[in-house]
Amino acid sequence: MIILGIDPGTSRIGWAVLKTQKRNILPLGYGCWQLQEKEQEKRLLRISKNLTQTIKQYHPDYVALEKVFFFKNAKTVMSISEATGVIALVTQKQKLPCLRLTPLEIKQNLIGYGRAEKKDVQKLVQLIFSLKEIPKPDDTADALAVALAGLNKIQNGHFQKNN
User: Fold this and answer.
1) Would you please indicate which residues are annotated as catalytic (active-site) residues?
2) Of 20, 69, 85, 90, which is most buried with the most CB atoms under 10 A?
3) What percent of the chain has pLDDT over 90?
4) 109-125 per-position pLDDT tens digit
């Protein structure tokens, strides 16, 4: 099984592709899309193109998307909501089931405590994948955590493809 994890943002979007192979979980690829465009419409188009290209390259069975539900800045939450909408649209067009996980669910799934520190989750990601350092920027490490939490949820039978 292959899962694509996405950490949405306004100027950067973290992504990570994991594959289960027997009892191992292998990262096939991960990184961060830098959204340099000034206009939001052009950023949204870039997200659509990058996501479509990543799906065509890795052929995931699922997409796990961090569900952002709180921000101090209303303008930021609107931009991220628009980006999330584009991601949802692309996954639907590609007929991919999409799990939406809150930061609390991701931390609970990986650490066992929903109020764990972000650095604890990132350190766990580094250890699980035997990485020399925590992937940078943070969006990349977060996307690996989103993918891993989504994978755990699927493997534990808490998500079905028809959801």
Assistant:
1) 7, 66, 139
2) 90
3) 74
4) 998 877 788 899 999 99
